[in-house]
């Protein structure tokens, strides 16, 4: 029951984040779909974590080089996702209001991804490997 409630809450927050992203693109005042390329960052964000989880089998170690490298790459992906709409706004490819909506969507989506790994990444009865 608790895992189902967490999954529903994460789904709801993911939908809110994607709504902010779509509003930044689809509102008639903005009308440019360049910020949709941020979706690529959403999809590649968890990949370093998955690779590090698969490669490093020593879960009792406090830190490993592979896990630290995965954190580094994930941080670079997240920073790039926040920087992309700012650069688009600076070169006037999108308006600053659209940039703000995309940044708000980024914050919600990345917090949702973090929440997913915090809730389902412990290796309990319910884990992300089941999904």
From TrEMBL:
PANTHER family: LEPTIN RECEPTOR GENE-RELATED PROTEIN, LEPTIN RECEPTOR-RELATED. Pfam families: Vps55. InterPro entries: Vps55/LEPROT. The keyword Coiled coil does not apply. Its main location: membrane. It is a multi-pass membrane protein. The chain crosses the membrane at residues 6-25, 32-51, 71-89, 101-121. Keywords: Endosome, Golgi apparatus, Membrane, Transmembrane, Transmembrane helix. Belongs to the OB-RGRP/VPS55 family. GO terms for biological process: late endosome to vacuole transport via multivesicular body sorting pathway; negative regulation of growth hormone receptor signaling pathway. This is Leptin receptor gene-related protein. One of its GO terms (cellular component) is Golgi membrane. It is found in: Endosome membrane; Golgi apparatus membrane.
């Amino acid at each position: 029951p608790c895992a189902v409630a967490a999954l529903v809450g994460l789904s709801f927050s993911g939908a809110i984040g994607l709504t902010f992203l779509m509003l930044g693109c689809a509102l008639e005042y903005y009308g440019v779909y360049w910020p949709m390329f941020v979706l690529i960052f959403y999809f590649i964000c968890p990949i370093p974590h998955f690779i590090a989880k698969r490669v490093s089998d020593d879960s009792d170690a406090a830190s490993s080089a592979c896990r630290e490298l995965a954190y580094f790459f994930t941080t670079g992906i997240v920073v790039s996702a926040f920087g992309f709409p700012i650069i688009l706004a600076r070169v006037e490819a999108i308006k600053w209001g659209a940039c703000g909506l995309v940044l708000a969507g980024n914050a919600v989506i990345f917090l949702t991804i973090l929440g997913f790994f915090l809730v389902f990444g412990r290796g309990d009865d319910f884990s992300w490997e089941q999904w």
